[in-house]
């Protein structure tokens, strides 16, 4: 598929990579540039005598380069696609050279073997062993939850307004205790709650909301046997209990559709771990889905997604009420296509959709929202997103440089904006012209800190 400059830059792992790629756009640096229906390739002259061999499988896009960079895609892969976006005439059409053809063949071979393995009947698990492991984990979680219940009571008895930075060490210690109790989801929620202490006006009320959701989990754990299967699945997810991928691919709710990539973002969890969110919406089903992937040590992601593109896929959804998280079960080896944004409801219906999601599962950390007519604005030090003609506005979580770019694309006129809502702030990821036609006019670039 043909990508715009903005779409290519949105694939950058960080701002430094995007900036470095722009510095490689001189034609003299690329003695070889070629393309076929399946791939784009080029040789980029670096500091050594041998140029770096850079190639992109357009079905992803998926990048590969002979340079030693651990970032994915590297600056050479980004520069190659930027050149393709800006000057297709510079690329010679023809059969891929051996170093590209061999790589494409190996990718096809891996895909075929993966499909063959998926078709093989899975070995029957040992129910007794699985039940024993589950019982042992629940025992540890119950002990941790009892300790958390006492700790939550201590915080509320002391009074939230009295909290300060000196308490953050104790909150971090309690988060670590939850990880030891095999409930990492609780640890993460405690860390997120601690970040609210002293943060802005009215922070005690926001903190109380977070602690209330923790209390819901504390109350649910001892009552888990009386909960419905879907609610138990939501509880396990909130605790951070991992889902068996093979079981999910075999038993998860199956939805086949053409999926529009609403938006995506990268979150740097630590120096070596990057978390990627890819949000999709089904053309026929209207279902919204979150693909959550991780990259360790800059190795990159198996599948590339382009915001504003559309491609056929079969997803398997995680169990639970109003489940959003999914995994790709089948992805045909065909290039994605650029598509207009699917129709969206008015603001009242979007709010209603969000309310239904929260009512079904109050522990969902992020909710996807599409606003048909939204205008970015700045008041004091805070960025806002005004919704339609009403005086309603959402506080935005967006770096200043990105916010100014979004405002420039708006020019004071409405945009169709997609992003994540965490209950307090809206994080824009993609914006289209108000009528929703064509490619996005703005996408979040680089990784969020």
Automatic annotation (TrEMBL):
Recorded GO MF terms: zinc ion binding
Record bears the keyword ATP-binding: no
SWIM-type domain segment(s): 52-85
Residues forming coiled coils: none
Any Pfam family hit: SWIM
Compositionally skewed regions (Low complexity) per UniProt: 119-130
InterPro entries per record: Znf_SWIM
Keyword list, A-Z: Metal-binding, Zinc, Zinc-finger
Residue span of region Disordered: 111-133
Listed name of the protein: SWIM zinc finger family protein
Organism lineage string: Bacteria, Pseudomonadati, Pseudomonadota, Betaproteobacteria, Burkholderiales
